[in-house]
Amino acid sequence: MTASRIFVYEYLSGAGQGADADRELQDAGRAMRDALVNELALRPGLGVAYGCAAGVAPAPFGSALRPRAGESALDFVRREAPRHDRVWVVAPESGGVLERMAMLVDPARWVGCGLEAIRIGASKSATLARLAAQGLATPLAFEAAADAWVVKPDDGAGTLDTRRHASRAAAEADLQQRQARGLPATLEPWVEGEALSLSLLCRDGDAELLAINRQRIAVDATGVLRDEGVRVACIGRGDVLAAPLAALARAVAQAIPGLRGYVGVDLVWHPVRGPVAIEVNPRLTCSFVGLSAALGRSIAAEVLALHDEVADAAA
User: Fold this and answer.
1) In 136-289, which residue ranges form alpha helices assigned H by DSSP?
2) d(Cα 40, Cα 58) in Å, to the nearest integer?
3) Is a pLDDT exceeding 60 seen at residue 17?
4) d(CA 34, CA 39)
5) Domains, the chain
6) Please, which pLDDT band fits residue 21 given cuts at 50, 70 and 90?
7) Which of 50, 46, 42 is nearest to 8 (CA)?
8) What is the C-alpha to C-alpha distance for residues 171 and 178, in angstroms, rounded to an integer?
9) Phi, psi of 232 (to 5 degrees)
């Protein structure tokens, strides 16, 4: 059945971390929420509601739904999901948040990747192992000749708590300290090159490369990485990078079962090896903001139409 009501839930602005979250993350989450809600609100016949925590500014369009006092993010989504035809969640993989959200929503209502894809994407090490097993270049291929190493949360997002080290010994010490504190972390070779990301539209083991984006990643004197934003769709289809990156997009979709709808891929373009996959995000990413305007098409509407088609076929 074609959706007539959809509930959009962005974790940071909805009821998740709220004031405890980093301000930059909150701003990024709200920007994704607003971009998604605004696009969906333009679809005729579709009622759009979204989660909005107390103290968070509402989106320009759609109906804001507030969690009850003391209500957890999971309970809020569990309560609202049955009241809508579709549920579109934007949440981090960290701590299994996105997976738990997917598990409590009826699969016929869920707009997004399947559970297997979410579970693989939630672990940076599992993602690299899966991609490497399918013959794709990953940082694992650089272990023998690495000049630097990076330690980061195994279930983290972006550059959060990520540090580059000049030696393997220093990286291993960092890794051990994190593990001693009970933090899931991973160590991998640092890959030199241009930081890029891909915006994909995935379905049934295939992927359309929507856009090639440039990431601005800064590294301070202590090796701490900082995300300074993304330039969306700044590399055109006629660029020499386009064909190999389109091939990478298809290979990623084939390697990870259950990728569906919008998917983000982070990579480094190595001067010798070409594209080196770093992580796969089975959800909306910051590159979604401004993407539809850049492409002249509504990606949100296309993703929803894809899920409507899948739901109709399964009915």
Assistant:
1) 168-180, 242-255
2) 15
3) no
4) 8
5) 5-112+306-314 (3.40.50), 121-139+191-294 (3.30.470.20), 147-189 (no CATH)
6) low
7) 50
8) 11
9) -80, 135
Percent of the chain with pLDDT over 70: 96
Q: Which two tokens stand for residue 221?
A: 């004197």
pLDDT of 19 reads 46
Write the DSSP symbol of residue 78. Answer: H
Look-up of token digits 């049955």: 82
The pLDDT score that the predictor gives to residue 1 is 63
Q: Tell me the chain's radius of gyration from C-alpha atoms.
A: 19
**Tokens encoding 144:** 């023998």
| Cα 97-230-249 angle, rounded to 5 deg | 70
Contact call for residues 290 and 232 (beta carbons, < 8 A):
yes
| Backbone torsion region of residue 52, taken as left when φ is above 0, otherwise alpha when ψ lies between -120 and 50, otherwise beta | beta
Query: 3 near 86, Cβ under 8 Å?
Result: yes
**C-alpha of 98 from chain center:** 10
| Contact by Cβ (8 Å): 289, 232 | yes
Tell me: the pLDDT tens digits for 144-177?
Answer: 989 999 999 999 777 889 999 999 999 999 999 9
